[in-house]
Design goal:
CATH topology of the largest domain: Trna Endonuclease, Chain: A, domain 1
Radius of gyration: 67 Å
Distance between the termini: 165 Å
Number of domains: 3
CATH class of the largest domain: Alpha Beta
Shape: flat
Low-confidence stretches: 126-133, 369-384
Strand order of the largest sheet: 1-2-3-4-5
Number of strands: 5
Strand content: 5-15%
CATH architecture of the largest domain: 3-Layer(aba) Sandwich
Helix content: over 70%
Order of helices and strands: HHHEEEHHEHHEHHH
């Protein structure tokens, strides 16, 4: 590019010089100074020569530039191909990593969506629970359900009755049937939530005092109602349980209202939370088990006596069997003794017969008939 610009500049310079010479010639006319015209002509000739040389050089430089440009283009293409290949590989790896990352991101998004759904469900359940607790009747039902679950999970079915009717036409939430004494214990669920919320939301001392008074009044009324309705002499135990389905309300009561707790002690109405009720029910289960053991003590004693009789009879029969075994052993010994005697007699007989056989072989019999007769007669005597 620079060579092309130089050539254009030289050509332009020559044109300018030629034009100036022509203008001077026109201005001076045919009779102008010949020396200057000759010098100008010489200069123009030199310029023409220089232009020719410059054209050759420019042509050579143009060819060289074309060669270098071709080499440069080839090198550039090779480098571009290498760069394109490297970029392709990098883009492929990047695409793979991107796809993997997107897959993992999709999984994380699914987990987040599931967690968000669970949070939404939980929020709906919390709202539903809040709606339940805001209504007095549904709040009472909530306490009864919690009481039901605790009692059913710990006590046997024969030890309790829900919504039991008493002789005063009152229905108690749960009646735990303990033996006398102490007798059946009434359990009633109460949930003074409004006054508790007022305590928590009090902003100044005056609001706090009003809320405390309301809370104390609500708990006192529940204690009085349970004492009057569910403690019946001769029918129930001389005490009852008031179930608070909230550990927070229970803790607030025992932490800041000791006089109300003392009032419940005097009325023999024991206030319990879910945790303390669970411990109480476990104690009740142990008492019921002990009572059943006492009820069955007579049966167990009678069965033990029968078992002793059976053992005594077994001992007698074992002794009889032992006597039989002893007699059988004696009989076997006698049989063995007889068998041994028989064996010895048989051996003696065998010895006698062998001895006679040997005597017959060594001493031939006498020819006289009298000796033979005597021998025949003696043989039976020996056998006898």
């Amino acid at each position: 590019m620079e060579i092309l610009i130089g050539a254009l500049a030289a050509t332009t310079l020559l044109l300018i010089v030629g034009g100036l010479a022509y203008l001077l010639w026109l201005r001076r006319g045919p009779g102008a100074d010949d020396e200057r015209m000759d010098a100008l002509a010489a200069t123009a000739a030199s310029l023409a020569t220089a232009q020719a040389d410059l054209g050759g050089r420019l042509s050579q430089m143009s060819e060289q530039s074309a060669t270098e440009r071709a080499e440069l283009l080839r090198t550039l293409h090779e480098r571009l191909d290498g760069v394109g290949k490297s970029m392709g590989e990098s883009l492929e790896k990047s695409a793979t990593r991107t796809a993997t990352s997107l897959g993992q991101l999709g999984k994380h998004l699914q987990v987040i969506d599931q967690a968000q759904k669970n949070i939404s469900d939980l929020a709906g359940q919390v709202i539903g629970l809040q709606d339940i607790l805001d209504n007095k009747q549904t709040r009472g039902a909530f306490g009864e359900v919690q009481l039901h679950d605790l009692v059913v999970s710990i006590l046997p079915p024969s030890a309790y009755e829900f919504q039991a009717s008493l002789s005063n036409q009152r229905r108690v939430d749960c009646l735990i049937r303990l033996p006398q004494p102490p007798g059946p214990i009434s359990v009633d669920a109460k949930f003074p939530l409004e006054s508790y919320h007022a305590l928590r939301q009090a902003e100044d001392e005056s609001q706090l005092k009003v809320a405390q008074r309301a809370f104390r009044t609500a708990i006192g009324k529940h204690i009085k109602d349970i004492q009057e309705r569910y403690i019946l002499p001769g029918e129930t135990a001389d005490s009852a349980l008031m179930f608070l389905p909230s550990e927070a309300v229970y803790a607030e009561l025992h932490a800041n209202f000791p006089e109300t707790v003392e009032l419940s002690y005097r009325a023999r109405v024991w206030i319990v939370s879910p945790t303390t009720l669970m411990a109480t029910l476990n104690t009740v289960r142990a008492v019921l088990k002990d009572a059943r053991m006492r009820e069955q003590a007579g049966v167990i004693q009678a069965e033990v006596m029968k078992l002793l009789d059976d053992v005594q009879r077994l001992d007698e029969r074992t002794e009889n069997l032992q006597r039989h075994f002893s007699q059988a052993e004696k009989d076997l010994e006698q049989i063995s003794t007889s068998a041994k005697k028989i064996t010895r007699r048989a051996e003696k007989i065998e010895e006698v017969q062998l001895a006679e056989a040997e005597d017959d072989a060594l001493e031939p019999p006498e020819p006289d008939i009298q000796g033979a007769t005597a021998t025949v007669v003696e043989l039976p005597k020996r056998g006898a």
